[in-house]
Design goal:
By secondary structure, this protein is an alpha/beta fold. About 50% of the residues lie in helices and about 15% in strands. The protein has two domains: about 5-165 and about 370-390, Rossmann fold, CATH 3.40.50; about 180-365, Glycogen Phosphorylase B (Rossmann fold). Helix 4 crosses helix 5 (about 100-110) and helix 8 packs across helix 11 (about 260-265). The protein starts with a strand and ends with a helix. About 45% of the residues are buried.
Length: about 400
């Protein structure tokens, strides 16, 4: 029996982590063995799939940022495509990162790649640029989607689509050790705690450092015994430390490793967070959260014309109401962030009501899984879908 071969491509941290989880699930679910290769980062490398192609320049966001990095993107597309054509896997899995992955898919199609091209995580065509659904259908063979409402946008163009579930919900976010965190950093029981989440990209940290610092300064002036904690990953630790050295108010923030994130969630009375996956994680933990985000001006003007939902946070979009106050672009200023967070820090009822509403919204978001697969992780469902695709040719 021929051992199937799969090649995974991840272009940024979130995709790298998703790919690593998929690798573990594939190894677990396929007892006959599987041959794996990848282009990715540290998470895939930890699974034994070390990449010679550096993906770090691909962690970009925005129209103008993309233009500046365009030559690098094209070079990486060529390198990745060359490697895949050389390896000749039975299937290639392109994880998230629409702009980069659609170029890789087009290149492979043009060069006559004979394996299955699988896109993992759909572009958010329900939010903007629905035409991407047709483009994707023309350039990949299968789609694995994390939202149960995605399929109709792609199946209408003849793209076989599998709903595998949102990996965010594979983990429990209410298992943190609040008492341990307070003990480790001498935080008294009566002291309120604010969690500060900067984002996962350098551009996000650079744009949010000033308003976040201003919010911290304002909150500390009103609540002198407030403790601010911020879990940061190794990939952005240097950037966050640089921001703290530039903005004195951030020097009051206790910077922790990402391994303490759930402890921070457990201890937090409220959070101020960059829009992204972490807001769904905070909602899952029931942490009342204020969301901030800033884009390059040109990128924002383009997005404003194209973006269809009224909210930017997935929890708010799913609930179709403001469960997390959002401050975008010019509104993302310290005074607005601080005033919104102050409500949760000073008003116990407002805090409890927000926590209950967030947990309820997350429960509804998780209810898309059918009974047969409800107990399986999204990575397990993804692995099963990939192996089924390979089996059916």
């Amino acid at each position: 029996m021929t051992v199937p071969s799969i090649f995974i491509v991840a272009a940024e941290k979130s995709g790298d982590e998703l790919g690593a989880k998929l690798v573990m699930a594939l190894k677990k679910s396929n007892s006959d063995g599987i041959k794996l290769g990848a282009v990715g980062g540290s998470a895939l490398a930890a699974q034994g799939l070390v990449s010679d192609i550096d993906i770090s320049p691909l962690s970009i966001l925005g129209f103008t940022e993309g233009l500046k990095a365009y030559p690098v993107i094209l070079d990486r597309v060529r390198q990745v495509s060359d490697l895949i054509m050389e390896v000749k896997p039975d299937a290639v899995i392109l994880i998230d990162s629409w702009g980069f992955m659609i170029r890789v898919a087009k290149s492979l199609k043009k060069r006559g790649f004979e394996g299955q091209i699988i896109k993992y995580v759909a572009p958010q065509v329900w939010a903007m640029r629905e035409g991407r659904s047709r483009i994707l259908a023309e350039n990949v063979d299968h789609l694995l989607t994390i939202h149960d409402f995605d399929a109709e946008y792609f199946t209408r163009h003849g793209l076989p689509t599998y709903y595998v579930g949102n990996p965010v919900f594979d983990q429990s976010y209410d298992t943190g050790n609040a008492e341990g965190l307070r003990k480790d950093y001498d935080i008294k029981a009566a002291q309120p705690v604010l969690a500060l989440l900067f984002g996962s990209r350098l551009s996000e940290i650079q744009k949010l450092a000033r308003p976040f610092a201003d919010a911290v300064a304002r909150l500390k002036a009103e609540i002198p015994d407030l403790v601010i904690v911020s879990p940061v990953s190794d990939t952005i630790a240097t950037d966050v430390h640089a921001a703290a050295s530039e903005h004195p108010a951030l020097q009051d923030v206790i910077l922790l490793g990402e391994n303490r994130k759930l402890d921070c969630f457990a201890a937090a009375d409220a959070a101020i967070a960059c829009s992204g996956t972490v807001t769904t994680q905070l909602a899952s933990a029931g942490v009342p959260t204020v969301v901030g985000y800033k884009l390059n001006t040109l990128t924002y003007l383009v997005a404003k014309r194209l973006f269809k939902p009224d909210y930017i946070s997935m929890v708010n979009i799913a609930a179709d109401q403001t469960l997390m106050p959002e401050f975008m672009q010019g509104d993302c200023e310290g005074i607005n962030l601080a005033e919104a967070a102050m409500v949760y820090l000073l008003d116990e009822k407002a805090r409890d009501d927000a926590s209950t509403a967030l947990k309820s919204a997350v429960a509804k978001m998780k209810s898309g899984n059918d009974e047969e697969t409800a107990n399986a992780s999204s990575s397990d469902r993804t692995a099963a879908a990939v192996l089924e695709i390979l089996k059916n040719g």
